[in-house]
Write a sequence for this structure.
């Protein structure tokens, strides 16, 4: 299952500046595992030590926040768009 | 979901007002009724900085009757790249005063209320209670959570915007009709994890992109027109030039606006958000030197290695002579440690002392027990040792 992952500016140091990268997996968990394999270090910015999504980072599949669906087990059908949206406070 | 207008219309518009606002009045959706609502509206802008600048200018021009400005800071030259409500002659002036002068120049019909104070848990409820709507243009997590909590506790809507480098986010939080900021981001990031604009930079014009969305939403809420950005997060990417919106759900478990709230009054936001982490605080205690002390060490010829933990582009702008660059990321992933000498005292510094304190905790935990960091960072060096150097 090929999915695209939108990378926020703050994490683009891990993807050599790429704003969107492709990943694979049937669930968000698998997609993030592949992402970490391709771009080492990025996983720890999204997931905490226990493997849960950090509370100041939101991950969307399509336009749905996975925190309100099945979390890391949320299905990522072929062609899904995963967006990582971290909290920023600048003003 | 459209919402009823937030404000009742003023009794009438004067002849001068009709002339000034004619381009609004001939839009059917705004018309006399909408403009009279704007005239009666009281809007508070928290922060007269990057987002506050365009927000205040457009709110003033639009004819919002009462505009509050709260900011404790003074205008610095490094603000002028994006804070367009201030000009060169305002450097050193209180931002709230400078912004008020610009608002009066744009529209003398606006009643401006200046709050030359820091927003704190002691005054936020009282200040907010005088306004219909809040526009959040602050620059740190602690104040953002405080603004949210006060708005929810008072039942007021607020328009939120946030920026970093080329990325912007905006939403409307109004617990009565949708989610609050805590529903979107339940907890702030740990200190040091997310850089501020002062550390990471921000494209000046991004402030206008997001600030204008905030004004757009404020006007819609006040006049009761269109689809407000309640329950949606607008995400702007200036490099890709894309706007996307995603749903933001009201979290039934939200500690503030959920079914069983555990936060029922204001909390200590500074300690909740942590200016620096406990580890960094501990590491820095007794291991912080001043810029002048570093100069003395260098002049004595002490056997030290000065390590700058900022990013390469910051190092290019200004650096402490003799410092080697090892960005903070390399401390976080551990690779910096093998580059540190065992036989020299390690002196860390950054821009203002927060990032170097975080790195100091890592370095000390790795056994470099005599390592220190420079309080106030390179900014302090410029101020006390070599004022000829630039600051940023």
């Amino acid at each position: 299952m090929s999915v695209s992952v939108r990378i926020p500016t703050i994490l683009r140091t891990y993807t050599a500046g790429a704003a969107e990268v492709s990943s694979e997996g049937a669930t968000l968990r698998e997609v993030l595992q592949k992402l970490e394999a391709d771009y080492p270090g990025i996983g720890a910015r999204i997931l905490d030590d226990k493997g849960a999504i950090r509370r100041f980072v939101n991950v969307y599949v399509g336009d749905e926040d996975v925190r309100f669906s099945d979390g890391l087990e949320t299905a990522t059908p072929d062609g899904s768009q995963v967006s990582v949206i971290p909290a920023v406070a600048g003003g | 979901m459209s919402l009823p207008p937030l404000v009742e219309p003023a009794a009438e518009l004067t002849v001068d007002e009709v002339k000034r606002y004619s381009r609004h009045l001939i839009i059917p959706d705004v018309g006399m009724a909408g403009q009279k609502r704007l005239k009666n509206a009281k809007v508070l802008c928290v922060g007269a900085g990057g987002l506050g600048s365009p927000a205040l200018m457009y709110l003033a021009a639009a004819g919002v009757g009462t505009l509050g400005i709260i900011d404790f800071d003074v205008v610095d030259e490094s603000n002028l790249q994006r804070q367009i409500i201030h000009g060169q002659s305002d450097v050193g002036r209180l931002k709230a005063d400078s912004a008020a002068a610009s608002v009066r120049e744009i529209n003398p019909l606006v009643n401006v209320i200046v709050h030359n104070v820091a927003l704190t848990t002691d005054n936020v409820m009282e200040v907010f209670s005088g306004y219909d709507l809040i526009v959040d243009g602050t620059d740190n997590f602690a104040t953002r959570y405080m603004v949210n909590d006060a708005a929810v506790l008072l039942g007021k809507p607020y328009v939120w915007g946030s920026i970093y480098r080329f990325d912007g986010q905006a939403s409307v939080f109004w617990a009565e009709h949708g989610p609050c900021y805590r529903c979107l981001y339940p907890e702030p990031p740990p200190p040091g994890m997310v850089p501020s604009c002062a550390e990471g930079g921000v494209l000046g014009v991004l402030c206008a992109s997001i600030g204008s969305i905030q004004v757009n939403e404020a006007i819609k809420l006040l006049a009761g027109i269109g689809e407000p950005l309640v329950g949606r997060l607008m995400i702007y990417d200036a490099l890709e030039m894309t706007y996307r919106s995603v749903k933001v759900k009201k979290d039934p478990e939200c500690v503030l606006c959920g079914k069983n709230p555990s936060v029922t009054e204001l909390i200590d936001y500074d300690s909740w958000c942590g200016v620096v982490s406990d580890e960094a605080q501990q590491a820095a205690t007794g291991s912080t030197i001043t810029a002048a002390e570093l100069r003395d060490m260098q002049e004595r010829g002490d056997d030290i290695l000065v390590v700058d933990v900022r990013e390469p582009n910051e190092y290019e702008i200004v650096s402490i002579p003799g410092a080697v660059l090892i960005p903070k990321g390399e401390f976080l992933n551990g690779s910096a440690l093998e580059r540190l000498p065992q036989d020299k005292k390690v002196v860390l510094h950054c821009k203002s002392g927060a990032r170097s304190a975080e790195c100091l905790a890592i370095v000390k935990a790795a056994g470099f027990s005599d390592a220190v960091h420079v309080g106030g960072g390179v900014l302090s060096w410029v101020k006390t040792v070599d004022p000829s150097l630039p600051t940023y």
About this structure: Chain B touches chain A through 47 residues (CB under 8 Å). Chain B has a mean pLDDT of 94. The CA atoms of residues 30 and 366 of chain B lie 63 Å apart. Residues 206-223 of chain B form the longest helix (18 residues).
